[in-house]
Amino acid sequence: MYKMMRETQPVQFLEPYNIWSVFRYDDVKTVLSDHTRFSSQYVEKNLPQASASMQTRMNSSLITSDPPRHTKLRSLVSRAFTPRAIEAFEPLIHDITNELLDRIAYKEDFDLVQDLSYPLPVIVIAEMLGIPSGDREQFKYWSDEVVASADQAIGGTSADSTKAHQEMNEYFRKIITKRREDPQGDLISALIQAEEDHQHLSEEDVLSFCWLLLVAGNETTTNLISNTVLTLLEQPDELERLRNNLDLIPSAIEETLRYRSPVQAMFRFAKQDIEIRGTTIPEGSRIIAWIGSANRDPDKFANPEQFDMNRYPNPHIAFGHGIHYCLGAPLARMEAKIALSLLLSRISHFERIDNEPLEMARGFIVHGVKNLPLKIVGRENNRKKLYG
């Protein structure tokens, strides 16, 4: 579908939903990065179907704000979400991954999503925010509903997504109140204490970042890990090459980000009448920038339908571009690298249980599978490798 749209309708108006789409790399990159013409700000006239709670959350989010507010928010959040703070979690991510793999050790088969790629980022985020382990399943529910509500923004929000927003807000408000009174060594405490030019993040700002981390650091990282393994299983020669040289894992991750982008699309709004490829997009129009299509554009990538771990350069835009480039990209890359390194080191060989079609994750913004059932091949050898 992306190939057809790039070739025949690179700028398309979908009349039933009153929304525009762009599909080619240069256009997608421009829409994502040119904040002077393309706004990230959700406003009622552009999204009248959204609930009041959703409007509030969108308007206070780092990814749905424009300068100068975005500049202030990003600067303050960056003071808490530093590269050093992220790197400090590397040993913990190793430990969590090993614990999850321990549970797989004596199984005949396992589900990559349910047993590894889903719980890993949920646990990491909970640890970063200082959330009790008993609340992790609630995190997953909220994350799923929040992602779904973004998809439903085209046609209105559901009662479930509205309820999820309200529950999440109430939960984090209690945590924020506790951290103001008794700061801990967690990210919420760091966000509360972040200061620049005598300015602090408001409670809504902190809530917004918790929401963003919950979604961007959970669903997308899960899909990055799962998509990499699924793609390698489809390319057995590449998988064998990776098993024999784990130093290729960072390149495999980057190529997966291009080839099977965990985030397929982002929304923008036209701040003025804008012409793209001879087509005028009217002021105020909603626009979908199709990242998944841009990352397969043959004008930018040679043999784009081929998964190539040696691809260089690889200027994919899976994490966005410009001022809204994903703040959590280093964390996602770190989690994926550790998860894949330990998986391939500890479980030498695995394969699909069957070739039945896999159920896709809900929605069109994020891209992944709900389950990836695998069976361990050469189980005795794996057991020796696990425990000596």
Terminal Cα span: 49 Å
Across the major sheet, the strand order is 1-2-10-7-3
| Residue windows where pLDDT falls under 50 for at least 5 positions | none
Helix content: 40-55%
Total DSSP E strands: 12
Chain oligomer state: single chain
**Structural class of the secondary elements?**
alpha+beta
Please tell me about this protein's structure.
The longest helix has 23 residues, at 159-181. This protein has helices spanning 2-8, 25-33, 52-59, 69-80, 83-87, 90-102, 112-117, 119-129, 136-151, 159-181, 187-193, 203-216, 219-234, 236-244, 249-259, 291-294, 329-346, 379-387, and strands at 11-14, 19-22, 38-39, 109-111, 195-196, 199-200, 265-270, 274-276, 279-281, 286-290, 350-352, 373-376. Helix 8 crosses helix 9 (136-151). The chain has 388 residues and is an alpha+beta fold. The strands form 4 sheets. The chain has a 5-stranded mixed sheet. The termini are far apart. The radius of gyration is 21 Å and the shape is globular. Strand 8 and strand 9 form a beta hairpin.
Which features would summarize this protein structure in a list?
388 residues, alpha+beta, five-stranded mixed β-sheet, three-stranded antiparallel β-sheet, 18 helices, 12 strands, globular
What's the arrangement of secondary structure elements?
Blueprint: H1 2-8, E1 11-14, E2 19-22, H2 25-33, E3 38-39, H3 52-59, H4 69-80, H5 83-87, H6 90-102, E4 109-111, H7 112-117, H8 119-129, H9 136-151, H10 159-181, H11 187-193, E5 195-196, E6 199-200, H12 203-216, H13 219-234, H14 236-244, H15 249-259, E7 265-270, E8 274-276, E9 279-281, E10 286-290, H16 291-294, H17 329-346, E11 350-352, E12 373-376, H18 379-387
Parallel strand pairs: 2-10
Antiparallel strand pairs: 1-2, 3-7, 4-12, 5-6, 7-10, 8-9, 11-12
